[in-house]
Amino acid sequence: MQADALAGVAATFLIKESMLLPIYIQANPSIAESHVCSVNNEDQNWTIDIKAYLRTGALPENPKHAHKIRVQSTHFTLMGDDLYKRSFGGPYLICLTQLEIQYVLSKLHEGVCDNHSGNRTLVHKAHSQGYYWPTMKQDAEAYARKCDKCQRIPQVIVADNGPQFDSALFKSFCSEFSIKNLYSTPQYPQSNRQVEATNKTLLSALEKQLEKAKGRWVEELPSVLWAYRTTLERPTGNTPFALAYGIDAVIPTEIGMPTARTAIQGQRKESEELTRHLDWADETREMASVRMAAYQ
């Protein structure tokens, strides 16, 4: 009743024109929209200050940064316009900028010679091929984590005949996630482990390459085998290619982003160099067999 009475009073109340308040409708934003672009300034890469110091002796104004550059530069050298790091256990390593880093990681991880390896294998492969940048481990881990194909549930698990893998709980887990469960034969467990590791690597790489197009495995098999043969193995300390020919293969990444190794080889007669390394291949294989025996 009180609400109705108040509404009636308000309706009969005359509002003077001077009391009217204008209402403005803002159809457009009062602040102009700003467009922001992601700019990758190539001049901001980590090699600029080191190159400047090696060329002209110029140092940054910041005393701490200048001291850091002076100390770091003792491990680097300039060859033309390219900066190389003196490796402690191998040839010179070419230093990469941010754009070059992404190119190398993409080619090594999912290019022609890829096998979607983990971050440790990825960073070791980049280093062994003659590349360097200060955050190699960090960038390799971040790249592997961002790869969609590397984050999925495995389609096959190859296990031994242990009771923990034959339990109802484990079988239920595999069935729930559509994981195929395979068992190895118990006759020769030493060989089983080696075959399991090889098959697991090849099958995993094939699955990541094919995804749903399983019928194309014959077409993708050569590139998967090439990736496997050019990847360093922990038991032997060499790549399968090096055990066969006595020298590591030049992978496609080194064609697009040349290293010190490919630059030097380009000035030699490749056939003579390959023949020389074939003569040394027996020694490489013998050292690999000793290392594999110790690994087992």
Automatic annotation (TrEMBL):
Annotated protein name in UniProt: Integrase catalytic domain-containing protein
Pfam families tied to this protein: Integrase_H2C2
GO MF assignments: nucleic acid binding
UniProt domain Integrase catalytic: residue ranges: 153-248
GO biological process: DNA integration
Highest taxon listed in the record's lineage: Eukaryota
PROSITE patterns recorded: INTEGRASE
